[in-house]
Amino acid sequence: MRDAEFFRRWMAAATAAVDREAARLTELDSPIGDADHGANLQRGFTAVLAALEADPPDHPGGVLQLAGRTLISTVGGASGPLYGTLLRRAGKELGEAAEVGDDELRRALYAGVGAVAQLGGAAPGDKTMLDALVPGVAALSTSYRAARDAAEHGALATVPLRARKGRAGYLGERSIGHEDPGAASSALLLAALADVAEAAAAEDAAGGAA
Amino acid sequence: MTGPLVGIVLVSHSARVAESVAELAQGLAAGGPPVPLATAGGTLDGGLGTSAELIVAAARAVDRGAGVALLADLGSSVLTVKALLAEEGELPAGALLIDAPFVEGAVSALVTASAGADLAAVAASAAEAYAYRKV
Q: A77, B86: Cβ pair inside 8 Å?
């Protein structure tokens, strides 16, 4: 079972990944976007960690809802409402339970991805964050590692796609040949989840051996 | 005897765009009673982008109880309003994202609201701007 601390660690790992990769995200956003994706997500996730520290929710759903609300209000670009909706909707699905199972987490993220698709009006293949999130969340039924790999693969697979949504959509054919920055950051989010799940499994194994 | 007027919020990536469109719409709607109108342009630090905080503040400032019509320009402006509408307690009850072109919709919404129309009529009037072909 996963408690609020697991979800806080996930957000912390996502923040660290965004910090580490901010320059790459902004670089990806330069040819087809407005070169602010890295900085926007850094600002948003830094605010998420601060909010979680200031008023720590005691249940997983509360952590994700607070994270989502914070992203909506601090990012300043389209990734704010999109990631905010993903986490907030997933948090609502988890409800008030003090601990949630992996199946509940998977179903909650699935609902979150659906809410993102509805908000942005995008579908897989449109060269958006959904191209990493949809295969990534689907692979959660196999394992966290499979989810991370599927999301990373999905992000790289956006390179030959033509963008149909957002600012990159205006570029038409010229968007081909670039990895979508939103798909790249979505892969980071799922990789962070896999990292904390693997760390928790390693802790359990060490605890069991002791 | 008329009731309160519908409030209008203009949400743009740019503070100057939002303020200029507000000025234009107010100029063209002049003559009617002043409509509660506020802008939410750019980010809190004055850059280009969208601020959820500015949107919420603007919507609360123009809410007279007859509903608030929000017009948004592009991308994150639209998505942020939609995300705020999906969250209870952020925007006033009766807040509505208007499906209309930004400049034409703002003029149309302001003129209609100034005539005392309700929120549905303001929304319909702004949306009609899509039907006006320029070529």
A: no
Whether residues A76 and B53 touch (CB distance < 8 A) is answered with: no
Sign of the alpha-carbon torsion through B40, B46, B52, B56: negative
A-to-B residue pairs, Cβ atoms closer than 8 angstroms: 51
Q: What is the pLDDT along chain B (135 residues), one digit of tens a residue?
A: 478 999 999 999 999 999 999 999 999 988 778 899 999 999 888 888 899 999 999 999 999 999 999 999 998 999 999 999 988 888 999 999 999 999 999 999 999 999 999 999 999 999 999 988 889
Instruction: Please report whether residue A51 resides in a domain.
Output: yes
Could you tell me if residue A208 is inside a domain?
Answer: no
- Domains of chain B with CATH codes: 10-130 (3.40.50.510)
Q: Are the Cβ atoms of A119 and B52 closer than 8 angstroms?
A: no
Q: Give the integer Cα–Cα distance in Å for A204 and A14.
A: 22
Look at residue A76 and tell me if it is in a domain.
yes
Residue A165's domain comprises: 2-202
Are the Cβ atoms of B79 and A120 closer than 8 angstroms?
yes
Amino acid at B108: S
The minimal CB distance from A69 to the residues B43, B75, B87 is found for B87
**Tally of domains in chain A:** 1
Q: How many whole angstroms from its chain centre is CA A80?
A: 11
pLDDT the model gives residue B1: 41
ipTM for the complex shown: 0.84
Q: Which chain A residues are within 8 Å of B51, Cβ to Cβ?
A: 73, 76
Domain of A48, CATH number, reads: 1.25.40.340
Contact state of B76 with A69 under an 8 Å Cβ cutoff: no
Mean pLDDT across the stretch A165-169?
81
Q: Judge whether A175 lies within some domain.
A: yes
The pair of structure tokens assigned to A6 is 């697991």
Burial class (CB in 10 A: 0-12, 13-18, 19+), B94: middle
Residue B70 near residue B82, CB atoms below 8 Å: no
Interface residues of A toward B, Cβ cutoff 8 Å, are 34, 36, 40, 69, 72-74, 76-78, 80-82, 84-85, 88, 115, 119-120, 166-167
